[in-house]
């Protein structure tokens, strides 16, 4: 397309491209330009020498990470916790959206949505404190246990409970907010499909399984692919707020390991190398998941 043809193509929708501009600038400034810093993963970076003056060391920091005695532990913990969150947490927003969509009383629906959404707006500092207090020896959960004659359990100090605490607290905090996208997708389903199904004698469960879910399947697939791409990036805030040395063996993940070893000790090159490893694995998983989605369902991100 020549320059004149390009101007002609842009002119009718120029106002839409203008609205798109802030988003494009955001990704350029905060996502693409910082990628220049990836180079320090292959250097012994010194803030005093800068990127151009630091010594090039190749794959030294990657090798150090892979040979570290803690690598297997943090990598296994990251994969397991991510898998649990994906397996148990991913369907919950879909279920919430399906339930809210069936509510006919507007006041009840608004109230339920508010209750589901509120936890998202709490930082993990606040929400983590609530979780710790609820699971403490004299907290709400142990009060219920003792009420029925049981002995208090130190949930936050027991390895067998910690991963479950991470998964359940994440589901409670984020599932309601994540359901918004599915509610929006459901609202776009053609109402005539439901009317035709009711005329044929379909029950509510038939409408959900044969109309609603197939109609929003593309949205489900896209969000699943995106979440799979972040499987090694659990985020440091939740785990950092909830874990302690007693559960390091089952709770220490790549993000907390990088914070503890890379950033607090000012080993910036090492921290960058681990971050690049996470991003590379995520990119590979996105491509694989997208290919599988296109092959078996006919839809994907691209």
Overview of the structural elements:
The chain is mainly α. It has a single domain, classed as MetI-like (MetI-like fold, Orthogonal Bundle). The chain is 71% helix and 1% strand. The protein contains 17 helices and two strands. Strands 1-2 form a two-stranded antiparallel ribbon. The radius of gyration is 24 Å and the shape is globular. This is Multiple-sugar transport system permease YteP. It is a multi-pass membrane protein. Residues 75-289 form the ABC transmembrane type-1 domain.
Q: What is the topology, as strand order, of the major beta sheet?
A: 1-2
Give the low-pLDDT segments.
none
CATH homologous superfamily label: MetI-like
Q: Report how far the terminal alpha carbons are from each other.
A: 23 Å
Largest sheet: 2 strands, antiparallel
Mean model confidence by pLDDT: 87
Secondary-structure map:
Blueprint: H1 3-10, H2 14-32, E1 43-44, H3 50-53, E2 55-56, H4 60-67, H5 71-89, H6 91-102, H7 106-117, H8 124-134, H9 140-147, H10 159-187, H11 191-199, H12 204-215, H13 217-229, H14 236-242, H15 248-251, H16 254-263, H17 268-296
Antiparallel strand pairs: 1-2
What's this model, at a glance?
The chain has 302 residues and is mainly alpha-helical. It has helices spanning 3-10, 14-32, 50-53, 60-67, 71-89, 91-102, 106-117, 124-134, 140-147, 159-187, 191-199, 204-215, 217-229, 236-242, 248-251, 254-263, 268-296, and strands at 43-44, 55-56.
Features:
about 300 residues, two-stranded antiparallel ribbon, 2 strands, transmembrane helix, MetI-like, membrane, Multiple-sugar transport system permease YteP
